[in-house]
Amino acid sequence: MRILGIDPGTRITGYGIIDVEGNRLRHIDNGIVSTNSKEPLPLRLQTIYSGLRKILDHYSPACMAVEQVFMAKNPRAALTLGHARGVALLAGIHSDLPISEYSALQVKSAVVGYGRADKQQVQQMVKALLNLPEVAQEDAADALAVAICHANSRTLNQAITRSGRR
Amino acid sequence: MRILGIDPGTRITGYGIIDVEGNRLRHIDNGIVSTNSKEPLPLRLQTIYSGLRKILDHYSPACMAVEQVFMAKNPRAALTLGHARGVALLAGIHSDLPISEYSALQVKSAVVGYGRADKQQVQQMVKALLNLPEVAQEDAADALAVAICHANSRTLNQAITRSGRR
What we know:
Number of strands of chain A: 5
CATH architecture of chain A: 2-Layer Sandwich
Radius of gyration of chain A: 16 Å
CATH class of chain A: Alpha Beta
Number of domains of chain A: 1
Structural class of chain A: alpha/beta
Oligomer: homodimer
Shape of chain A: globular
Largest interface: A-B, 32 and 32 residues
Distance between the termini of chain A: 25 Å
Strand content of chain A: 15-25%
CATH superfamily of chain A: Ribonuclease H-like superfamily/Ribonuclease H
Number of helices of chain A: 5
Helix content of chain A: 40-55%
Order of helices and strands of chain A: EEEHEHEHHH
């Protein structure tokens, strides 16, 4: 099963694509969709949306995973981030994908095994788990991390389902 | 010229359509796109987007006006609102419309002549300016208010342009 992880942002939206084969994870691609901060917000949202639609069309993932965000500090930054996140979710829906959301705690626990891990630890573990030749760009690494988290929770759900069937 | 005003929200998105003929404003339609709060956010965003696209297709406005939002209190509410606002802006861009944004101060000043007017005053003035038979639903009235604000700032810009040409 192919999973697309997304880390949305108005300036940089990271994406990461992995395949899950049994318990094995295989890295397919990662990268970013970046926007020009001098352009008006509606055009930047269109860049994010159409960039993600291209990636969705190209890689045909079976599902999409996005990090839940709860920023406690800055309402204005939260509002702006919401715009990017909204069009990213819409791109997934328009490609008929089921969308799962995970908290930062869930993502870090899944990838590093520790919910308060820092960015560098997440990046290093993403590199190790997917046998990447080098550490991925920060936002792309976060996108791969949420994809890995979704892969793990699927494996876990299957294990629970199987044990429930016994 | 036909203007579509939008007041985005994840639960209720208000819309209002007016025609501007010289200095005259004519009410065309107003209403809301509502979503089911029990549905997952991505589906609710799709409801908002497709609802607005239908309205855009039906009324073929020449431009779209949306209120700028600066909520100082609650980052989580700001994030959620950002999602709705993002897909509303995308709907406008996908219909090739120029999009203008106005602050609440600009909208209230344009409609009531007083930047700190309350909701009831805005609703009453919208009713009076557009000869509505009754006060519009709150979110639809806000959408009409931002459309009126855009109409006024256009008239003002034209007046400035004209006087500049003299």
